Amino acid sequence: MHVDGAHGMGVLFSEKYKYRVKGIERADSVVIDFHKMLLVPALNTLVMFRNGERSFETFAQKASYLFQKSQKNIWYNSAIRTIECTKSALGIIAYTALKYYGNSYYRNYIDSRYDLAATFSLIIKSDDKLQLATEPESNIICFRFSPEGYNDLALNQINSEIRSRIIKEGSFYIVQTELDEKIWLRLTVINPVTSEDDLKALLIRISEIGEEEVRKIV
After folding, report:
1. Element (H, E) at 71
2. C-beta of residue 165 within 8 angstroms of C-beta of residue 92
3. Distance (Å, rounded) from C-alpha 209 to C-alpha 69?
4. The domain 109-217 is classified under which CATH number: 3.40.50.300, 3.90.1150.10, 3.30.450.90, 3.40.50.2300?
5. Per-residue pLDDT reduced to its tens digit, 80-130
6. What is the per-residue burial (b if ≥16 Cβ within 10 Å, else e) of 114-139?
7. pTM
8. Most confident segment among 70-74, 110-114, 214-218
9. Which of 91, 139, 186, 218 has the fewest beta carbons under 10 Å from its own?
């Protein structure tokens, strides 16, 4: 059993939220991206195996001009278990980040981003022109501008245009996704310095653009 924890597995550093990955210890392999919630440059991904020998089976390389049979499954030779062969030592970057920041920093950072996402969802629910797709379970929130009186086709058009204009302005960075044939705005609270005021400013701008787009439809 493999678990893709690329984004969410960083929650293991949090005493408050790590219950959300309860049972992860039963996996045969787990992946976590250090460049997502652990604050290192992309691309930096860790794959952990319950049985280390499986790592050689999964990414085995066969090249007699490079590898001798006597060197089979040598832990320090990364070339024999990667599809990239020649690869920089990304493990050093991850190790350095862990040693430099320490567990307490990651714990506080992750707690603060998850807490802020929860706060953001409450702000969205308090506005009758905004709709939350689902309660956030991490630091990712999906929502949309959704005033009454407009069908999903119109709302899809409005929200796509909201996202496009915000990106072109360069004031914020958000993406969009589709759920049940509806277009939603998708925000990941990942920057350590993003504040509640920043998110409120984003919602103000979304509402401003949304109202402008509504008038175009009318």
Report:
1. none
2. no
3. 64
4. 3.90.1150.10
5. 666 666 667 788 899 999 999 999 999 999 999 999 999 999 999 999 999
6. bebbbebbeebeeeebbbbbeebebb
7. 0.86
8. 110-114
9. 218
